[in-house]
Design brief:
The chain is of the alpha/beta class and 337 residues long. It has helices spanning 5-47, 51-70, 76-88, 95-101, 104-110, 116-128, 133-141, 144-150, 193-202, 204-211, 257-273, 293-298, 319-336, and strands at residues 178-179, 215-225, 230-239, 244-254, 283-290, 307-313.
Length: 337
């Protein structure tokens, strides 16, 4: 007798849900155990003598005993991680969040972030956006948090018509610079705008992850037409959290006043022709290879509350290069305001 499809599907869903709950429960207990082990290690170190030397010997001996008794997972390095886990989050009030919402791999990455504000951001976003371990690691390595902060300025715009918990700022969704290392272009500085645009679409999932939360793809070379002319916008997205259409114009050269004028026209046209009654005003972002201080200071960009010019880097910079770039962007913002 052949089973009914809906009957089999129901049974499969019950088992899948049960396995998911079992995994979640095991993860919660394991991470909490690691926190408690870290706490107990610190307490023992504080009661011991000879400071660091005692702590090092303590972990070495503990590793041998636990490995002999329980098997893998209790190396000297992992015990140091457990100790650091407790020291980073010694406040027991946040234990539930750390243990029940994130895996040990997530926690191990986040606790190494020195900036407490950045740690809190990565904790919340990992939970709310369901970041994978790989995605979290990339975001930490590319200073995701700091790049969002670099775009915050006097143009912060809040949705005051929404409940407090939904009052997002535009600049919570904009980074400067954007990093597109996933394009895998050997000499990106010599590529055409069309080639980079094609590479972004080919890697759309990674592009969306770099853009951040709430973005969905609408179209490439999106056409808007008047009675006499057709215009094509490089990339169009919609952010369902802010209820904005977001237009991207890709430039492989330094930002010019023609670029800002063109984006201003696109924004105005899109607001008239495409924006729905319950949408917020259209947002425009010019992705450029370089910004010009004069253009930033004296063009329409200075006063436009719905237009941003941000730099993109089609390669993964070193930490020093990225921090230097963020500092340059902050100086440009001071020029602008």
């Amino acid at each position: 007798m052949k089973l009914k499809t809906d009957f089999f599907t129901d049974i499969k869903n019950i088992l899948t849900a049960a396995r998911g709950k079992a995994y979640s429960a095991v993860n919660t207990l394991m991470v909490e155990a690691y926190w408690l082990i870290g706490q107990r290690i610190v307490e023992e170190e504080q009661n011991g003598a000879d400071g660091a030397a005692y702590g090092e010997k303590l972990l070495e001996n503990l590793s041998k005993e636990l490995t002999s008794e329980f098997g893998k997972g209790f190396s000297y390095a992992n015990l140091k991680n457990m100790r650091q886990f407790y020291l980073t989050y010694f406040d027991s009030e946040i234990r539930y969040t750390l243990c029940s919402k994130l895996t040990w791999s997530h926690n191990r990455l986040i606790m190494r972030v020195e900036d407490s504000n950045a740690r809190e951001y990565y904790l919340n976003e990992s939970i709310n956006q369901n970041w994978s371990v790989r995605q979290l690691e990339r975001n930490i390595n590319t200073h995701f948090f700091q790049r969002i902060l670099s775009s915050k300025n006097e143009r912060n715009i809040t949705r005051t018509d929404a409940p407090f918990e939904q009052q997002y700022q535009i600049t919570d969704f904009i980074k400067d610079p954007y990093i597109f290392e996933f394009l895998n272009l050997p000499q990106p500085q010599y590529e055409t705008e069309s080639k980079i645009e094609s590479a972004l679409i080919k890697n759309l999932q990674l592009f969306l992850l770099e853009l951040g939360k709430g973005f969905s793809f609408v179209g490439r070379q999106f056409r808007i037409s008047t009675e006499t002319s057709h215009f094509f916008i490089d990339l169009v997205f919609y952010n369902y959290l802010l209820k904005y259409f977001v237009l991207f114009d890709l430039k492989t050269t330094k930002l010019t006043h023609q670029d800002t004028g063109q984006m201003d026209m696109y924004i105005r046209m899109f607001d008239v022709m495409k924006k729905q009654a319950d949408d917020n005003p259209t947002l425009g972002i010019i992705l450029c290879a370089e910004k010009d201080e004069t253009i930033v200071k004296y063009s329409i960009l200075k006063e436009h509350r719905q237009m941003f010019a941000t730099k993109y880097m089609p390669f993964l910079p070193t930490e020093a290069e990225l921090i230097a770039e963020i500092e340059r962007e902050k100086r440009l913002l001071k020029v602008q305001f």
